[in-house]
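Thread: Modeling a multi-component assembly for a lab meeting

Hi all, long-time lurker, first post. My supervisor asked me to bring a structural picture of a complex we are working on to next week's group meeting, and I have zero experience with this. I have the sequence lines for every component (444 residues in total). Could someone generate the structure of the whole assembly? Inputs are pasted exactly as I received them:
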Amino acid sequence: MKEAVHIGKNPSAEPDLQELMGSVALGDQQAFAGLYDVVAGPVIGVVRGVLRDQAQSEEVAQEVLVEVWRSAARYRSERGSVINWVLTLAHQRAVDRVRSVEASAAREHRAALLDHAPEYDEVTEQVEARLEREQVRRCLRTLTELQRQSVTLAYYRGMTYREVAESLALPLGTVKTRLRDGLIRMRDCLGVTA
Amino acid sequence: MSTVDLHTLTGAYALHALSDDERGEFERHAADCEACTQEALELSETAARLGLAVSAASPAALKSKVMRRITTVRQDSPRVVPLTRPPGSGSRSRRLSRWALAACVAGVAAFGGTTVWQYDRAQDANEQARQSEQRTDAIASVLAASDARTKSAELADGARGTVVVSKSRDEAVFIAAGMAAPPSGKVYQLWFNDAGTMRSAGLMDSHRTAEAVLLEGAVDEASGMGITVEPAGGSAEPTSDPIALMTFPA
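Re: Modeling a multi-component assembly
Sure thing. I ran the full set together rather than chain by chain. Output:
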């Protein structure tokens, strides 16, 4: 079994985050400022990765952060960590924007993306650029090439598994299982529990 | 899609890599599949770690914008609705797919805590708005019912409570005005009075001093209602003396 590792301060910071969320849910703006400082960076990173557009990213990130404030009372700790709740929201909103029929510009951009070679290497480079991201980088390396490509395209580019399949010229079923197997391997490598 | 196929979607689900239809199909399957639910949760936590790894610098201007905006954004409370409809909720709700609607209904049905989907569609703001709209409609229906009976009472500290009961709908609405905010970490909980036994009827929003709340559950044989101060999240039964008791209009 592989040694479990943790990224930076995240797991140990979680109890504090839950406390902050409790105060935010009760309308405490100062607590929200504290929560903001912890989650804004990851939110912006995730949204920007998927949208690849500065102006749209900022707009969506802003919406996500305001939504965190608005819907804080619906967070339930038994259903996952605060950071997961926030980043799930951020990723979902970014993906919604990319897939939304209204965002025609984004759609064209997306079509252009699909025309090109997969950009997972670029993402991996970004990941490698930061020392504290060492664990994710190391764990990504434990994946097979296909698992790694599938997972990074889906998460960091917000592609559906159909788009991943198209992009990598793989059968749908293969991509489905690669996404699952890849994430399971990441989970075990990172020592994630839920 | 077969059950086995659905189970292999946990990874794609956690990465938001499913279409809306597939997502709905997976969520309906997972509602009865504890193993899928657990795996999807773990893989979602794993995906969040991927997200943490691409954390970017946060522009100072964004923080001031967000901090400014939240001062004007009313926070959601799971069980109550503001008296006005959320802007734009009508047009938004029309865009929802039938799967999203199904997930929404499932979310409402599972409100008692059986759902484990922190992130399911039912929690999305659009659907929350639609649910709010439904509850607003429900409140309006009680208020407009031909057999609606109203009774008002002075509560503590100059606050005023009005209860509207419709026997035909078997529902009641409580309208509060001028209530002090509950102590920090506490909420006002509403109760039906069943011949001296208190039955929970939901929570009030801590941040508003004037609101209308549709009491959760049927009026049934309840003769009145009470309000207590409870720890955040509410209690299964009152843990303190009521701050107000009202009998229902005859």
